[in-house]
Amino acid sequence: MSSQPPKEAVGITAKKSDDFSEWYTQVVMKAGLADYAPVKGFIVLRPYGYAVWESIRDILDRRFKETGHQNGFLPVLIPEGLLSKEEDHFAGFTPEVFWVTQAGNNDLGERLALRPTSETLAYSIFAKWITSYRDLPLKINFWNTALRAEIKATKPFIRTSEFLWQEGHTVHATEDDAEQEVMSILSIYRELIEDHLAVPAVRGFKSDKEKFVGAKYTTTLEGMMADGKALQMGTSHHLAQNFSKPFEIKYLGKDTKEHLAWQTSWGVSWRLIGAIIMVHGDDKGLILPPKIAPIQVVIVPIHKDKDAQAVKEKANEIAQELKNAGIRVHVDDRDEYTSGWKFNEWELKGVPLRINIGARDIEKGQVEFARRDIRDNKIQSPRTSLVDKTNELLEEVQKSLFSKAKALLDGYISSPASYPEFRSIIEGKGGFARAGWCGDQKCELAVKEETGADIRVIPFDQDGMPEKCIYCGQAAKKVAMFGRAY
Questions:
Q1: How far is CA 286 from the centre of its chain?
Q2: Which terminus of the chain is less hemmed in, N or C, by CB atoms within 10 Å?
Q3: Residue 404 placed within a domain
Q4: pLDDT for 83
Q5: What distance in Å separates the CA atoms of residue 170 and residue 34, rounded to the nearest whole number?
Q6: What is the domain range of residue 476?
Q7: Per residue in 97-142, pLDDT tens?
Q8: How far apart are CA 91 and CA 157, in angstroms?
Q9: Cα separation of 222 and 101, whole Å?
Q10: Residues 243 and 159 in one domain
């Protein structure tokens, strides 16, 4: 049998440090995460990529249900009249909306929007469901897709015209309850992003310019990618009564008086997969954090023909023991590929841990581990401590990935003392420029126009605020993290 890999399985040919964009695209395609669809701006999620999304989804779904949220389903079409009911919200999304104007050969009397987000649709329904304080809080999450016309600059997982996400929508009796919900969800997102995806993020508020259209305020988690660009990882919005007023979401309180409800919305998308690739990947391909890797351990039997059956049996025995311990494992016992080619393939796919097993290992009563995240990564361990050693190494990989990502983030945070230095940082190495801001949107817009940098986040931690605004020199009111972003 031929030991040559199929054409599409050739490894990564671009270096991460030389051509980040090409490297990223190659990892997405060659690791089998996604492929391009026939329509520009859309991608096809392949089974391996979907398995990564399922890992993320399962973690969040469990946490949402633990905190009293239920899942629901919404249709994809929204009547134009409904979408325009909250004018500021509608205006913010109009440039990105796909419109349906025909049903078969018949013109529709009213245009239908393909859902860019579901606030208007959900809230027209919520108004029918909520009549009394006994109906509150209403806490619903939707696992669905959103469609937004990304025509100019597309990037798999990061900017696509249709994307998988979850969007939560809640209704509360008081503003205090709504604000607690906003922060509770942000905490769940932080737990997912930092503890499971091993990507550190800066928590804080969006500026009024950058907040969700229609929100009173938006909280965010901003990550830093390996090329010095920021990525919005997740947002949680306090909508106040900005939607309950136009949609008349009211309830009869215990005081027998009618009150307007308070609302929140929040979401993360599959761009989290893009963040994992950008932050953790290397020139060999993907590196997946163990906690979300569909396959945590791959076992590669190494044998000559005479040893084949015995080695494969031992590999499957090891796999079963690991499965019984709750570890996600796969045995690559294909005969048509060499062990070296298999090593390269699983490194490309980012499996955190590999076990090599051969006749000599069986004789010695040992297994050989290889960590994906480090060089010189061969580790021998007694067969009797298989499960304990596997769990130990998986934990080490998880911690190591976070540590490296934290060093990356810290290295990309600068504190310029002047506007020329600020510009030099933004236009040079990139990253976050931590600077004073007077709070005037004119300065924010001027910085954007002159440097391409937005206020990515106004950190919750406002310690060490500079005295002056980095742009105008007036008294600073806030510390802001500026940066260019995806």
A1: 15
A2: N
A3: no
A4: 84
A5: 32
A6: 413-483
A7: 999 999 999 999 999 999 999 999 999 999 999 999 999 999 999 9
A8: 25
A9: 37
A10: yes
User: Which alpha helices (H) appear in 67-206, and where do they start and end?
Assistant: 80-83, 87-93, 119-129, 175-190
Structure tokens at 274: 């893009």
pLDDT digits (tens, 9 = 90+) for 201-254: 999 999 999 999 999 999 999 999 999 999 999 999 999 999 999 999 999 999
Domain at 479, CATH number: 3.30.110.30
Closest CA to 217 of 252, 260, 186, 255: 186
Cα separation, 72 vs 126, whole angstroms: 12
Residues 135 and 235 grouped into a single domain = yes
Average pLDDT, stretch 20-24?
Answer: 98
Main-chain dihedrals φ then ψ at residue 219, nearest 5 degrees:
-100, 150
Rounded to whole angstroms, the Cα distance separating 98 from 236 reads: 25
Last residue of a domain, one of 347, 366, 394: 394
Q: Cβ atoms within 10 A of the Cβ of 96, count?
A: 16
Q: For 143-184, write each residue's pLDDT tens digit.
A: 999 999 976 778 999 999 999 999 999 999 999 999 999 999
Final residue belonging to a domain, choices 345, 366, 394: 394
SS3 376: coil
Identify the CATH number of the domain in which residue 269 sits: 3.30.930.10
Q: Are residues 47 and 161 in the same domain?
A: yes
- The verdict on 273 and 302 lying in the same domain is no
Supply 194's token pair. 């930092």
- Partnered with residue 233 across adjacent β-strands are none
Which is nearest to 254 in space by CA: 356, 173, 199, 370? Answer: 173
Q: Judge if pTM exceeds 0.85.
A: yes
- In whole numbers, what is the pLDDT of the chain averaged over residues? 95
- 105: which residues sit within 8 A by CB, 6+ positions away? none
Instruction: Looking at the structure, tell me whether residues 258 and 313 fall in a common domain.
Output: no
Same domain, 53 and 189: yes
Q: How far is CA 111 from the centre of its chain?
A: 32
Check pLDDT > 70 for residue 1.
no
